[in-house]
Specification:
Largest sheet: none
Strand content: under 5%
Length: 75
């Protein structure tokens, strides 16, 4: 996963979330169908795709999907 489009595709394919790139900045509480199980599944999928662990404390503080994406692609 290298681009925002890759991230959106992962959200759609892996989590079946009906999101677009425009939705990434919205608060997680406003994302259609979002719940804590999605967060766990997203972390697992991102770790598989990137080959590295995500900082769980930072993920739990993420306010949006964009925040999670930035954590996933951070150097």
């Amino acid at each position: 996963m290298k681009t925002v489009d890759d991230f959106v595709t992962l959200l759609r394919d892996e989590l079946a979330l009906p999101v677009t790139a425009d939705d990434l900045g919205r608060g997680l509480d406003t994302v259609e169908s979002w719940d804590s199980v999605h967060l766990l599944a997203l972390c697992t999928a991102l770790e598989r795709e990137t080959g590295r662990s995500l900082p769980l404390a930072d993920v739990l503080e993420a306010a949006s999907l964009k925040d999670v994406y930035l954590l996933a692609v951070a150097p």
